Structures are given as C-alpha cells and as structure tokens.
Amino acid sequence: MRADRLLSIMLLLQVYRRMTARELAQRLEVSERTIHRDMEALSISGIPVTAERGTGGGWSLLEEYRTNLTGLSEPEIQSLFLAQPAHLLNDLGLHKASEAALIKLLAVLPAMHRRDAEYVSQRIHIDGSGWHNREEAIPALPLLQQSLWQECKICFTYLRGDNQVERLADPLGLVAKGSTWYFVAAIDEQIRSYRVSRIQAVQLLEQACVRPPDFDLAAFWKQSSQNFTSSLRCYRASINASPEALPRIYGSSRLFRIEQTDIVDAHGWTTFHLRFDNDYEACAYILSFGNQVEVLEPADLHQQIIQLAQSVLACRQH
C-alpha cells in the first residue's frame, strides 16, 4: 500500500539521514520513478523532504524533523515476537537485552495488539539449529564483535589444517550459518570469510579499519554461499529401484540429492537420477540395496560396485 511505503520512506530517511532514489527503490522493491512520485506526494503533504544532486547527494529530511511511529500493523507485531535463535543472541551477549526490549514493547502495545503478540509467540517457534550440529568453542567472538563496533583493524591467527597463519584484517561483519559463526574481513583488498571457531587469537589495533563504501554483508554472503555450493564436487548416477527400496531412498535423501524421478513400469520400479558428493559414496550406498537396485549409469559405477562386492566376499571367505 502506498501509505505504508510513504511511512517507510520517512523512517528510512530518519534512520539513514540521506538515501538516493535508487537505494530507496531497491529497499522498497519499486521503481525509481515511483520513488520520485512518492517524494512529490510527501512534499505536497507538508513533509520537509529535500533533494541534493551530484556525488554524495540524495533525498533527506530536514534535520529537525522527526516522525513518531504511533502504530504497528498486526503482521508487523507478530513478526517482532517470533522466537529469535536464543543461542545466537547468547553468543553475542544480547539474549537478556532482547528479552527486555520485547517486554518494554509489549508493555506499550494496546491490549488487542498485546494479545496478538502473545498469541504468535506461543504458536510459532523457530529453531535455527540442525539435528547434528556440534557445539563449537568461539572464544574469539567477543573481540571480533568489539572490532566491528569500534571499526578498528585487527590481527589474528587462524588454524588452517595443522598450521597457524597470521592475518591483518579490516573487519566487515559476522554471519551465523545455522549455529556456526563466520567472520567476514577484507585482507589485502580481498574479502574473505573465516570460521570463528578456528580463530585462535585476536589483537585489536589502534588503526581505523577501511570499509568498502559499497559493501553489503548480506549480498556478499549470498554470493559467497552460491560460489561455495557450485564448487562442491558432485557425482551423478541413475538407478532403477524396486518398490521395496523406495521408502529407504526417500528417507535417506540427506545423503544425496534426488534430481529427477521417472516411473519405469506397472510393477512400481522407479528410475532415480541422483547426485552424490563423490563416486565412493554412490558406490557404497547403492551396494547396500543388493538386488533391489539396478545401476543404469555411469558404466564405471556398475564396475566399481562389482569390485566392492567381490572384495567384501573375499574378506568373508578369509
């Protein structure tokens, strides 16, 4: 709705002081032309928005102007009271602060909205951890967090395999992937990420860090994750599976990815096109089905399974 967007524009300008039409358009997912029309509407309604052209320019509010947020919509209130990942807030030392903030917000909400907040918090719980996550020691996290707040360069040692390497870095951000923390930093003009549990020591320096003016932490992490996923080794195999094998294949799909399925015949045999991390995993997994599975391709996988089965029989005979 346009009214919501106009309010969002005022709040964004109040928080960020000055934003370009492009930045506002990207943030609100509209066109720049729409932003210019919205600015005209704000100006006509008496909101003191000003535009500055040239490098460093953009839209801004007069410095003395402030808007008070007097109401939140029902979905906005519900989103604020969804359970946050408590272990991540604990890692950052913010769990109690988060609880206190929500209590204060709850206290000032009208009675009908207070009920909405309590309602959603008792019916939706978000657990960001997986079933097999291992707890990692992250003693370096507080100093890394401090370096980000103080915007200072740091020197740290990092455990790479069995070796320790030393790095001089400009801190850029922290990212939580599940329950695992990663430190993003600029080193020798290259942006890299480091697993926090492998950072052995951190020294904060007096020199101010240099942050790329156009750096976006969320955008960097999204692209970095995509690059990592595409670089992973993969091994594709196609099999025919009997009806008896289907429940186990669907139940253990965390070991591989099912890319496509096709029904073969009326007897229930199904063709699966699977993607494994490597040929050894494919070989061992498919062999465990015995005669419930037939290998279609690649041809060398069929031969590997025969050799593996023969080696198992040879061991039993000895």
Automatic annotation (TrEMBL):
The keyword Methyltransferase does not apply. Keywords: DNA-binding, Transcription, Transcription regulation. GO terms for molecular function: DNA binding; DNA-binding transcription factor activity. InterPro entries: CBASS_pafABC_assoc_protein, DeoR_HTH, HTH_11, PafC-like, Tscrpt_reg_HTH_DeoR_CS, WCX_dom, WH-like_DNA-bd_sf, WH_DNA-bd_sf. The keyword Transcription regulation applies. SUPFAM superfamilies: Winged helix' DNA-binding domain. It comes from the Bacteria. Pfam families: HTH_11, WCX, WYL. Residues 2-60 form the HTH deoR-type domain. This is Transcriptional regulator. It comes from Dictyobacter vulcani. The lineage of its organism: Bacteria, Bacillati, Chloroflexota, Ktedonobacteria, Ktedonobacterales.
